[in-house]
Amino acid sequence: MDADFLIIGGGIAGISAAARLSELGSVILLEGEATLAHHASGRSAALYEPHYGAPAVVGLSLASEAHFRALPGVLSPRGLMLVAKADAREAFQHDLAAMDFAPISVAEAMKIVPVLNPDVVAFTGYADHAEDVDTDLLLQGFAREARGKGARIVTGAQVSTILREATGWRVASAAGTFTARMLVNAAGAWADAVAIMAGVQPLGFTPLRRSMARIPAPGGHDVSRWPMLFGPGEDWYAKPDAGALIVSPAEEHPMPPHDAWADDMVLAEGLARYEEMVTEPVTRVLSNWAGLRTFSPDRVLVIGPDVREPAFFWLAGQGGYGFQTCPAASRLTADLIGGRMPDLDPGLVAALAPARFG
Ligand SMILES: Cc1cc2nc3c(=O)[nH]c(=O)nc-3n(C[C@H](O)[C@H](O)[C@H](O)COP(=O)(O)OP(=O)(O)OC[C@H]3O[C@@H](n4cnc5c(N)ncnc54)[C@H](O)[C@@H]3O)c2cc1C
């Protein structure tokens, strides 16, 4: 055997799992692209908002907080502002409660974000619990930790066949053939494709495209301390990003797994929803991109051994929460593989287990 654990996927899920699993045995991680984090993990909004998502996702995000706090520089204050028109009262009230915002007056909101248009914006809410994640620092930290414990991280290693053998797996990739006792599927949008290759039943993941435009700071303002702005019902958002603003239409368009790019029309419509709420027009787009947020049928991550093939471990369906959940998700992965009692609530572990899909 070349290794105890072979991980397929060099995004945040696979890299964080490599760090934790290298404490238990030998690890090989295979990434098809030439660099790590080429797909979803290189295209996120980089936010830690633990109240975002289904209860099991919130549980994992909250369980990740201590790890983030222990890494200097990974989290930095951001805050959230919910901004709604008069006809969006119901959606505003829903988000206010769901994401734990405090209502504030439009005048107070304008002191924080002076470009809000008081003729259009009718309701505003504020929350200080969301933080920026330095995703590169986080990812490189896990990669360094994994390599330091002997993990082999191989890029340019697109996996093309997976064979089950008596004692484990034989995996052929563009960088050679590797054998391992256990396979960890951290292939993001390709999680079902990897399962099919291994002869394991797919679980029905859906990659949903989400696009992003980077625009100059509106009106030349210093946006560095502005909170992230959210439209009600998450129909757009905007976030300061290194002196500029990134604006997303927040779309969820089902797509086959692929190297995603932004759709011009979707981007234009999202920018229009943002622009309606502010006094400064969008004059140009500096750059744009899109990524796939891949969800399981119940929009909760899938972490655990396959029901019929226990040597095949699922670490998939990170959706829009892959960064904010990765410390707890990777720890749970190692606990389950290592036969240790997870330090998460058993109900939460069951809500994440592949067994919930039968
Ligand atoms: C616009 C946008 C905003 C987001 N904002 C946030 C946010 O604010 N906070 C947050 O926590 N999350 C956010 N996310 C979600 C987050 O980016 C993802 O959940 C996370 O990156 C998923 O990581 P992953 O490792 O599962 O997938 P990926 O990063 O896609 O990695 C999977 C890897 O597997 C590789 N692979 C697949 N098949 C094979 C094969 N056969 N052989 C070899 N390699 C293979 C792929 O090349 C890929 O690199 C956002 C996502 C998007 C798109």
Task: Report the sheet with the most strands, covering strand number, pairing sense and barrel closure.
Answer: 9 strands, mixed
Give the fraction of residues assigned to helices: 25-40%
What small molecules does the structure contain? flavin-adenine dinucleotide
On the 0 to 100 scale, the average pLDDT is: 97
Q: How are helices and strands ordered from N to C?
A: EHEEHEEHEHEEHEEEEHEEEEEHEEEHH
Taking the alpha carbons of the first and last residues, their distance comes to 31 Å
Overall radius of gyration: 21 Å
Residues in β-strands, percent: 25-35%
Keywords:
358 residues; alpha+beta; binds flavin-adenine dinucleotide
Walkthrough of the structure:
This protein has helices at residues 12-21, 55-69, 89-98, 106-112, 135-148, 191-197, 264-275, 322-338, 346-352, and strands at residues 3-8, 27-30, 47-48, 75-77, 80-85, 102-104, 121-127, 131-133, 152-154, 159-165, 168-173, 176-185, 206-216, 228-230, 237-241, 244-248, 253-254, 287-295, 302-305, 312-316. By secondary structure, the chain is of the alpha+beta class. The mean pLDDT is 97. Flavin-adenine dinucleotide binds next to helix 1, strand 13, strand 18 and helix 8.
